Amino acid sequence: INASVAETGLADAVDVEIFREKGAVQKLIRKIHQNGCVVVGSNHHFTKTPAKEELLAIFDRIDEAGADILKIAVMPEKQEDVLTLLAATHEETKRTTHPVITMAMSGMGAVSRISGEIFGSSVTFASVEECSAPGQLPIGDLKQMLGVLHRSMR
């Protein structure tokens, strides 16, 4: 499906889950690149938050696969997990030239969607109608919170 989307020429970027068979992932990324699309290499952890060292190793694997943008989403089980993700985000932005996207899911992780850019995450996600992931905020609320954050950072 990802390759077909890239072939249409209608997509600017295609998200590829990196943790599949390595050869197949690299072949898919090459095909997407051949069609002029940016590859968002992603990894989703729907049940936990890996340790910081593991998150950094995952960023390395995404980069080695040839992705243009490095993305990790995690599920925090405790507050410290959100801090772990934000610390890994901050460190990765110092190690790479690629844009980094991170978010912690669930209500506990919502703060990462609001403040992620302070730690180096280059994109956040909001819902227009129904949420597509746990902890995703309605776009109006997120826009307001980001406005307050940006004004306070001036």
List the main descriptive attributes of the protein structure presented here:
globular, about 50% helix, 6 helices, two-stranded parallel sheet, four-stranded parallel β-sheet, about 150 residues, alpha/beta
List the helices and strands and how they pair.
Elements: H1 2-8, E1 13-17, H2 22-34, E2 38-44, H3 52-64, E3 69-74, H4 79-95, E4 100-104, H5 106-115, E5 126-127, E6 137-138, H6 139-153
Parallel strand pairs: 1-2, 2-3, 3-4, 5-6
Helix pairs in contact: 1-2, 3-4, 4-5
Secondary-structure element sequence?
A: HEHEHEHEHEEH
Measured distance between first and last alpha carbons: 43 Å
Structural class, judged by helices and strands? alpha/beta
Strand content: 15-25%
Gyration radius, rounded? 16 Å
Q: Quickly count the helices.
A: 6
Classify the helix fraction into a percent range.
Answer: 40-55%
Sheet with the most strands, sense and barrel status: 4 strands, parallel
Instruction: Name the overall outline.
Output: globular
| Mean of all residue-level pLDDT scores | 93
- The number of distinct β-strands equals 6
